[in-house]
Fold this sequence. Notes:
Blueprint: H1 2-6, H2 19-24, E1 33-36, H3 42-49, E2 54-58, H4 61-74, E3 79-82, E4 95-101, H5 107-120, E5 121-132, H6 153-159, E6 164-177, E7 181-193
Parallel strand pairs: 1-2, 1-4, 2-3, 4-5
Antiparallel strand pairs: 5-7, 6-7
Amino acid sequence: xxxxRYAEDDYAYGTAPNxxxxxxxxxxxxxxxxxxxxxxxxxAVWLAxxxxxVTAMDASVVGLEKASRLAAERGVRIVTCxxxxxxxEIQPNAWSGIVSIFAHVPPDLRxxxxxxxxxGLRPGGALILEAYTPxxxxxxxxxxxxxxxxxxxATLQVELAGLVFEVAxxxxxxxxxxxxxxxxxxxxxxxxxxxxxx
Length: 198
């Protein structure tokens, strides 16, 4: 599915970074940043332009080729890694920041990935996450077609246990990101930080 979607000439979700990421990016510490399910690279490239060392992972080789092309056009460098999230290994204590923007996967995989995210952050490192909630199904402006692929704040607070939540909210907002996120939506937004040691 994703190779087909990203094979379009245009960028499926645009080339501008996600609004919530832009709002929270100053709270990412310096150091390496991992962008999960990054697709065509809009967030990774923007973070690289801000001076971060960014790794963009995604299951779609087509999406990552476009991500590399976008990085070259913007004069920045990103590392790409083509992998299914189920097989992708997040090294413990390796990342100053992890970014998960609309990375919707089945619940069992999501729980496993979120455990690895908590382990993968360095002390003081931060997760920036935005996803659609089950309420999004009423809006029909993008996101998964079934509720089980969405996320709620209550669920994320359990799955991301071990992080301190500096931002944790569900809200309605306008989402305009390429062809596939168009209009008012219902999202959950998280900025979670791994406590510093000592």
